[in-house]
Automatic annotation (TrEMBL), chain A:
One Pfam family from the record: ABC_tran
Keyword Chaperone belongs to the record: no
Domain of life of the source: Bacteria
A GO MF term: ATP binding
Keyword Transit peptide listed: no
Family designation: Belongs to the ABC transporter superfamily. Macrolide exporter (TC 3.A.1.122) family.
Name of this protein: ATP-binding cassette domain-containing protein
GO cellular component term, pick one: transmembrane transporter complex
PANTHER family on file: ABC TRANSPORTER ATP-BINDING PROTEIN YTRE, IMPORT ATP-BINDING PROTEIN
SUPFAM superfamilies named in the record: P-loop containing nucleoside triphosphate hydrolases
Record keywords: ATP-binding, Nucleotide-binding, Transport
InterPro entries: AAA+_ATPase, ABC_transporter-like_ATP-bd, ABC_transporter-like_CS, ABC_transpr_LolD-like, MacB-like_ATP-bd, P-loop_NTPase
């Protein structure tokens, strides 16, 4: 579903070149729940941005759903983001002046759905995250956990092929973090592929696969199967 | 995709900035619409056809200081000298200068009995000769010019004839020819022998400006009008002074000016008002566009992450551009509609207190359209900057 081969991302200034990703290789299969961990500055967010078509890469090859992502026009990239990818951000990124229904409706409007279809999807998505009764509330009237659930509803409303979550529990207390994580697991069980960047090893352990990024490269894979973890060499995994 | 409903809802929820901008647009539309109307109305006044060949008619005054001079005789000689000068097409003396703001005016009775007869409108009373029409370049459209032997020496002489402006003819005799018709001063009658297409009086602000009459009287005054090509006027001034001073050196010849210059001076206040109002219109539009640009730039700065998020969620650059345009068009249209209503109310007050005509609705409508154009120009540049915000901004901590 998602294949990255030898992806490099170099940020250049007049004085320095920073390699955010170096020969980055990764394959994510449909229906997987992958956690991406790594120290600050290791390239996790850069990977997420490239995976989510939020920014380009310097060289390499990236296929998403058999679509070659290199050299996509800005409008085509926007269309793919809108149709195939759902985003969940650490800071929720809800629009404060819009109520919950209007927030969830934002990507659906860009998709060009008619009003009836938008209403149906908004209602279904908010009900799925348990906020169906609060559609007219403003984000400021909700707790952090509820806001993140709205953000998840917004990501789900477009029925994307996969979800990209950037520290989805980073701004939540442990109880709310657990609730959000359970929601993500539920979504994954329903068939949506999830890639989640996190600092929290506990949460990472609940994913099917854990990828650690160090200095812009995939350092190791950890498969969690039946509660037992197995460290797998990167080269070996890619070869397999 | 315009997305008007959520944009409108969003504007209603964060009111202060949009409301300030709205008030600014309401006031701007009300003032600009009325100012544009007044400017257009004044320009229309200034561009009215006087019926006179304004550029070619050179006027001047002769001040005699010789007590023994026979004014009538000297005037006759001077007119002959002027007509004999090279490049002069026609010349005459006059009792008043057209469009000058001063002169003679009168009314006549439309019947012999002053008690029962209605009066004509107030008209500009020119005293002229058979040379007056040619000198001023008036177009005779009906009847005839004076003959030389019909010119009286005084307004009290018998045999009173008139050449009148078409506007006066149509007002006094709406459905019939004015030629041969009589008007009266007490029991004395005056006959209309000619009608000129247009001939304005002296007072440019008067409602009766178009009503003029030339009486067959050679007024031996001190003001003369000479017709010659405008390019000849400078040389002609020297020639006039030289020729008239040769004939009688005990006098001062001064105040050379074309009727075009006389007219320009009379419309000076109007010109000043047009300049001031035009500057005010430009300033208001500039301030409004700066307000809009400032508001958009502030919003972009405040909503950088939100714009990045919208881009991440699938908004194209065009969607972001249209978001800001629609947002500001909504403010502009709301302000425009309210401003147009205020413009009509303001126009009514101006009509009441300053004797202005009723505001034509065309002006508020055009002002709102113009305001939309200003909005587009003011918003597009910063909005394009917003459209270029990277979707990756959504994952950054800003």
């Amino acid at each position: 579903m998602l294949t990255m081969k030898n992806i490099n991302k170099v940020f250049k200034t007049d004085l320095v070149e920073t390699h955010a990703l170096r020969d980055f290789n990764l394959e994510v299969k449909e229906g997987e729940f992958v956690a991406v961990t790594g120290p600050s500055g290791s390239g996790k967010t850069t990977f997420l941005n490239i995976a989510g078509l939020l920014e380009g890469f310097t060289n390499g090859e990236y296929h998403l759903d058999d679509v070659n992502i290199s050299n996509l026009s800005d409008n085509k990239a926007a269309a793919i983001r809108n149709e195939k990818i759902g985003f969940i951000f650490q800071g929720f990124n809800l629009i404060p002046d819009l109520n919950l229904a209007e927030n969830v409706e934002v990507p659906l409007r860009y998709r060009g759905f008619n009003a009836k279809e938008r209403q149906r999807r908004v209602k279904a998505a908010l009900e799925q995250v348990g906020l169906g009764a609060r559609m007219k509330h403003l984000p400021s009237q909700l707790s952090g956990g509820q806001q993140q659930r709205v953000a998840i509803a917004r990501a789900l409303a477009g029925e994307p092929r996969f979800l990209l979550a950037d520290e989805p529990t980073g701004n939540l207390d442990s109880l709310m973090a657990r609730q959000v994580m359970e929601l993500l697991e539920e979504i994954n069980k329903a068939g949506t592929t999830i890639i989640m960047v996190t600092h929290d090893p506990e949460l990472a352990r609940r994913a099917q696969r854990n990828i650690q990024i160090v200095d812009g490269q995939v350092c190791d894979f950890t498969l969690y199967q039946g509660g037992q973890s197995h460290l797998v060499d990167t080269a070996e995994k890619v070869a397999s | 995709m315009l997305n008007i409903k959520p944009i409108f809802s969003s504007l209603l929820r964060s009111k202060s900035g949009p409301v300030l901008l709205l008030v600014q647009i309401v006031l701007s539309v009300a003032i600009v619409a009325n100012a544009s109307f007044i400017i257009h109305e004044r320009l229309g006044m200034m561009q009215r056809d006087s019926g006179i060949n304004e550029e070619e008619v050179l006027t001047f005054s002769v001040f005699n200081f010789d007590p023994s001079i026979d004014i009538d005789q000297q005037n006759k000689i001077d007119q002959q000298i002027l007509r004999a000068l090279p490049n002069v097409q026609a010349a005459t003396s006059t009792n008043m200068l057209p469009l000058s703001g001063s002169g003679w005016s009168s009314t006549l009775n439309m019947g012999p009995d002053p008690e029962t007869a209605k009066s004509t409108p107030q008209y500009a009373m020119y005293l002229g000769t058979e040379h007056t029409i040619k000198t001023l370049g008036l177009k005779l459209i009906e009847g005839r010019n004076f003959y030389a032997d019909e010119i009286n020496k005084s307004v009290n002489d018998p045999g009173k004839l008139m050449i009148i402006s078409k506007a006066l003819a149509e007002t006094v005799w709406p459905d019939e020819s004015a030629i041969g018709k009589l008007l009266y001063i007490d029991d004395e009658q005056l006959e209309v022998i000619g009608v000129v297409e247009k001939f304005q009086g002296a007072w440019v602000d008067s409602d009766d400006l178009e009503y003029s009459v030339i009486h067959n009287v050679d007024f031996a005054g001190y003001t003369y009008m000479v017709r010659a090509a405008a390019s000849q006027h400078e040389a002609l001034q020297d020639a006039i002074v030289k020729a008239l001073m040769k004939e009688n050196p005990n006098r001062v010849i001064d105040d050379f000016q074309s009727v075009a210059e006389v007219k320009k001076r009379s419309y000076r206040d109007h010109e000043l008002m047009i300049t001031v109002l035009s500057m005010m219109v430009v300033l208001l539009l500039l301030i409004t566009s700066l307000g809009l640009t400032g508001m958009v730039m502030f919003n972009i700065q405040r909503r950088t992450k939100q714009i990045g998020t919208r881009r991440a969620l699938g908004a194209t650059k065009g969607d972001i551009l249209s978001l800001f345009l629609v947002e500001n068009y909504l403010i502009c249209i709301s302000g425009g509609v309210l401003g147009a209503c205020l413009a009509v109310l303001l126009g009514q007050q101006l009509m009441k207190y300053y004797d202005l005509p009723q505001l034509n609705l065309f002006y508020p409508v055009v002002t709102v359209v113009g305001m939309m154009l200003v909005t587009t120009i003011a918003v597009v540049l910063p909005a394009r900057k917003a459209a270029n915000i990277s979707p990756a901004m959504a994952t950054r901590s800003v």
